[in-house]
Amino acid sequence: MIRTLLLLLPAFYASPAIGQWTTATLSQARWDLGVAAAGSKVLFAGGKTLAGTSVIPTDRVDIYNRQSLEWTTATLSQARALPYALSLGNKAFFCGGLGTNDTPTNRIDIYDGATGNWSTHQMIQSRHDMAAIAHNGKLLLAGGLSSTGGYSNLVDIYDEATNLWSTATLSQAREVGAVVAAGNKVFFAGGFNGFLLFNTVDIYDTQTGAWSTAEMVEARTNLAATSVGSLALFAGGDYPAQELDASLVVDVFNTQNNTWSQSNLSQQRAGAVAATIGDRAFFAGGYRNLSTGTEFFYDGGYLPKRRLDQRYPISGTYTAASPSPGK
Q1: pTM for the complete prediction?
Q2: Per-residue confidence at 135, pLDDT binned at 50, 70, 90?
Q3: Average pLDDT, the chain
Q4: Which terminal Cβ of the chain has fewer Cβ within 10 Å, N or C?
């Protein structure tokens, strides 16, 4: 992946009232930050920066207060890049990440937007490439790659109501392919462990704390996932280490009747992005593996897609659009 580092890293934000952009300047030029909101504040935490000619992790946190319109700074308890940033209630969580020499950490920094206080917690295992989500009063950090190089099945769970942490395990150790929530359930779908692809879906019930499993129609990873209404959708994906093109399958779980169904995207793709507005789910972009190469990130082996699929949950149909230019 190619990144461009500017000497000053500006922050751009829009005012929804007038639809205009303004700029601010972070206190330190850096990339691979984590960003999360806590009450009326937005926090930009950690990342990588330059020290002479060396790239190092940073502990810098820039905080914007929407009420006072002021910027302040703070520091994480440990310098690191790519922390998993999540918001839950009035708190912002910066979980794990890569420290010195890109070593995974188990540190979690927690900012309380109501009091302005910081606290820390440690995950049961240092790891990265986790599936992270906050939903219905719970925060979950699942699977990933550990600091020893093995794949993990561990899940760290924070309960907002009790302010307590607990642990659980996925049914299979892996880097999860996609995570999404719908209703009172959180879904950890598919994934890869360096050798095997999985069609497994681990399902966590945020009300009862119970776990169950299901299977997608295809084993794959790098899916796009979103929820719309009572539906959880898992779209596309690819097959690392296999001489196969990307998937066009969409697995759909209905939380009202606990049933699965399948549909198709308009084109095969992996690495798409997904979003929901009202009663529509959008799946945009992505790539295809046309080289039949066996490496997951093979430059030149992927064909970027401009296609955008929309799903209408009431009718269960898909439409496709191609933002100009391109197909």
Answers
A1: 0.86
A2: very high
A3: 87
A4: N
